[in-house]
Amino acid sequence: MLCFVALSAVFISKLAVDPLAQHLQNLQNLSRETLHELNLPISTIKTNLQMVKKSLENEKALKRLGRIDNACLMLEQRYNELDYMIKTQTMQNLQESFDLAILVQERISFLQPLYPHINFLTTLKSTHITNDKIGLCKVIDNLIDNGVKYAPNSNQLDISLDNHELRVQDYGCGMDEVELLKIYDNYYQSDENIKGFGIGLSMVKRFCDKQKIHLSFKSKPNTGTTVILKFKKD
Fold it and tell me: How is 85-122 classified by DSSP, letter by letter?
């Protein structure tokens, strides 16, 4: 009797789970197909933009094309993030070897138009690592965004890379010891007047823990904050 009950429970559970598993598989297939279809128009826009730029000399027209180019870069970023999300859902190995200095400079160049008032002072030494490159892009973007956001009265952000250690230093409001203990909490913000959802650093912490990157902070109120990422050597 007990055996019959157990088998019945397994059968009922399977009936309940199978449709959900099929639904998730269908969503993954749709995401992959949509991603594939997006690749062509993005490539077409980028290629034609470069061709049109070569034939134009009018400054106003070039500025308009520049705005279209920036919008295309942002669209391409969303494409990469969707591709990344699909790969993480299917548990693919996302490790690759690259020069972290080049990646950091690429992220600064991408974000510079969003923060035209910020002077990025960089000292980046070539550093080869093996890591989740796209996930690390999101971490770097988040740290730069926080550095700008929490230093509204400063126009400088220092970013250095040496001896497998990446530092992002701002000159903003800073934090005391009590606030530093709370920074990884979901939805916590040291300044409630700053727009945002307060989930960025908890995501950064999870990523660093998973990738075995040592994450630490140095901060003083009204002085600024330095975020330090220490990478393991290959």
Answer: HHHHHTT---EEEEEHHHHHHHHHHHHGGG-TT-EEEE
Q: Check: CB of residue 160 under 8 Å from CB of residue 142.
A: no
Helix axis angle for 133-149 and 200-211, nearest 10°, is 140
228 close to 167: Cβ distance less than 8 angstroms: yes
Say what the pLDDT of residue 228 is: 96
- Main-chain phi, psi angles of 160, to 5 degrees: -130, 150
Q: For the residues of 114-157, what is the DSSP string, one character each?
A: G-TT-EEEEEE---EEEEEHHHHHHHHHHHHHHHHHT-TT--EE
What is the rounded distance in angstroms from the CA atom of residue 178 to the CA atom of residue 176? 6
Token pair listed for 136: 């690390």
CATH number among 1.20.1200.10, 3.10.450.750, 3.30.565.10, 2.30.110.10, domain 95-230: 3.30.565.10
CA-based torsion, 116, 186, 178, 160: positive or negative: negative
Alpha helices by DSSP H, 150-223:
177-180, 200-211
pTM of this prediction?
0.63
Tell me the average pLDDT across 103-127: 93
CB 151 within 8 A of CB 210: no
